[in-house]
Amino acid sequence: xxxxxxxxxxxxxRAFEAATGVTVLIDDTPGAVVLSGFDPVRxxxxxxxxxxxxxxxxxxxxxxxxxxxxxxxxxEKIINEAGEQxxxxxxxxxxxxxxxxxxxxLKFRTSYxxxxxxxxxxxxxxxxxxxxxxxxxxxxxxxxxxxxxIGKAMDHNQEGTHAKLGAxxxxxxxxxxxxVNAIESHHHEVDQLTIEAVIAEAADAISGxxxxxRREDLEAYIKRIRTLEELxxxxxxxxQAFAIxxxxxVRVIVxxxxxxxxxxxxxARDIAKKIEETMQYPGQIKVTVIRETRATExxx
Length: 300
Known about the structure:
Blueprint: H1 2-6, H2 11-20, E1 23-25, E2 34-36, H3 40-56, H4 61-90, H5 97-104, E3 110-111, E4 114-115, H6 116-134, H7 138-147, H8 162-172, H9 177-184, H10 195-209, H11 218-233, E5 238-244, E6 249-254, H12 261-278, E7 286-291
Parallel strand pairs: 6-7
Antiparallel strand pairs: 1-2, 3-4, 5-6
């Protein structure tokens, strides 16, 4: 089957890659063909097409093009339906069809294993709850939460951060300026002008940081934990450092004779700042500095 996918002198695999824009990796791993590409929608079209071609068995350039055309139409339909369904689930009405279509593309995008369209609906619901609790504008908060990561559907093929790209796209399709500010400012690239923008950021952090929301492979996880501990131990006066809560907190034990109470507070701030500057991680990391003084005497 792998020989058929490659084709005579590689003509089938070349035709597939040229038509999809996705790289096909075929090695000695039994029963596996790897598809690699930055565009998640193209990758999904390629995956569906490859599965159909393998089941069909007829693999040649003309048939590859026909199957890809059919799959592209099917995925486009799925994208439109996914965007509309997500807006319905989040309870948001009145969005432009193009905005809904772009949101639908997030169905095929993940971040640390968390599906981005499900994340958008979750953030929208959390934003609505938070807004209702503190008396903010619920509908605008929900819309800001729903659309905050829309830029991730386009950031692989355009220059700029996903927050900026998403804000510009929504502005073009007449989305409320308060919602646009919530999208643009959820990573503090611009100032947050309203309470709704703050709510969107808080809901985003809650959704990303809840247990089980995101996963990493074991190797990357262990490397992150080790880096966190080593980074904390690199400061003067630190005796030991332990990463706990799956790397969401680091507890630093200092030598009491070297670090006083004021220096402990300063050390916690310095470690947190260095973590922000040198590491990449989902959510946030809590730094706790522990200074313990023991006095021991013996009664003889």
